[in-house]
Amino acid sequence: MPRSPNPTPAGVLAGLLLALSTLTAVAQPTGRPAPEALRLRALAATCAHCHGTDGRAVEGEATIRLAGLPADYLLTQLMAFRSGQRPATIMHQITKGYSQEQLESLATYFGGLK
């Protein structure tokens, strides 16, 4: 069947979408991180505003570096903030917004960084 010299807008859109999907498939590495790893990094990124990217706080700032601290210590502190045992200006409110599993995951994540 011969091609029409003036494709329809729907035909142009379909062609663009096909080209974009092909480029996207080629551009993505085959060894990309698992969805769970991406979710964990996104969760950990919520701490970056105060504790620095990947928990690497700027030296001399009031907040502590989380990266490399033992996971069990981090979890103990997070739970102490959550319960009110450890006084805080904001962490007691922040930790209440996370599930137990999320806090455990964050402690493990930051504990595994150097």
UniProtKB/TrEMBL annotation:
<keyword id="KW-0732">Signal</keyword>
<keyword id="KW-0249">Electron transport</keyword>
<protein>
    <submittedName>
        <fullName>Cytochrome C</fullName>
    </submittedName>
</protein>
<feature type="signal peptide">
    <location>
        <begin position="1"/>
        <end position="27"/>
    </location>
</feature>
<keyword id="KW-0813">Transport</keyword>
<dbReference type="InterPro" id="IPR050597">
    <property type="entry name" value="Cytochrome_c_Oxidase_Subunit"/>
</dbReference>
<dbReference type="InterPro" id="IPR036909">
    <property type="entry name" value="Cyt_c-like_dom_sf"/>
</dbReference>
